[in-house]
Amino acid sequence: MTPTAAAAGIVHIGQRAPQVSGAEMVAALVPPPQFNGATFESYRVDPAFPSQQEAKEKLLAFSGATSVVAERAGFFRRAKKMPETKPGVYLDGGFGVGKTHLLAAIYHAMPARRKYFGSFIEYTALVGAMGYQKTVELFRGSDLLCIDEFELDDPGDTMVMTRLLGELVSSGTRLAATSNTPPNALGEGRFAAQDFLREIQSMSASFETIRIDGTDYRQRALDGHAGVLTDTEYERAVADAAATGLASDDPFATLIEHLAHVHPSRYLRLLDGLVQIGIRDVTQLEDQSSALRFVAFIDRAYDAQIPIRATGLSLDQVFGDEMLAGGYRKKYLRATSRLIALTHS
Fold this sequence. Notes:
By secondary structure, the protein is α/β, with parallel strands linked by helices. It is built from 13 helices and 12 strands.
């Protein structure tokens, strides 16, 4: 069945089977609710990392904004125009430094008639649902395409995205993307990237890379570990949430198994109406495919800012040392950061 919001009660994500049409996927290509009000002015620059202020000023110019609060000067000044030698900007930096906030700020600030904002997986899923040519026709002539969490995890994604972006750039579309990996290193450690070097280089040539350094803002006020509840505390937390809203309650193993049967583009719909996610008996993940699906699920939960309550192993330990040493290390670390934040929210 397709999940629908309820006033209150307990539901099981493992029993939800959402369906999403191509039209619904397109309609969802806007910034997540937590970034509805994201602006350049509300981006908190860390003075310890000058690249943040530099990135902010470059992106202001890219978006066409005419003024910015100059923190160091203490007054409004006209933003400097940067040479527009490339049709896109690529925000390269670690997780938790505000890249998505800045990407959403570009979206909100750019005076564009047609603009879209989505995660990398949403765009590739749209191609799968609508077909490549229809997707090109949909986006052709658009003013701006924002791509969050840009990753090339397999050759198919590489070919699809390089072709798609190439066609859109030629039609005048401007691009803005974020990633934890520089564009010339996408795919590194995941598949035989050297076999697709020409395609990767062709795509990266469309972007002006802007480096953003900093520390993970999500962990500045946290103890570095995800919250873990006792069985009694968990039952109370689920009951309290279910008294006023819709709360989920699933064993970790059941949730992981269910994610294998739902396309990642539908994960957000698994969370429809929820005010809290409950996960019992968390254990360490052994299978990389399961781990990557869980990362995609947590990304959607974080976008929706839904608190997580859990028992068992601390959620910041679900990705083992072997996984953290592999090509998906940055994905797992980003998910860990988000898990810590959501279990403390």
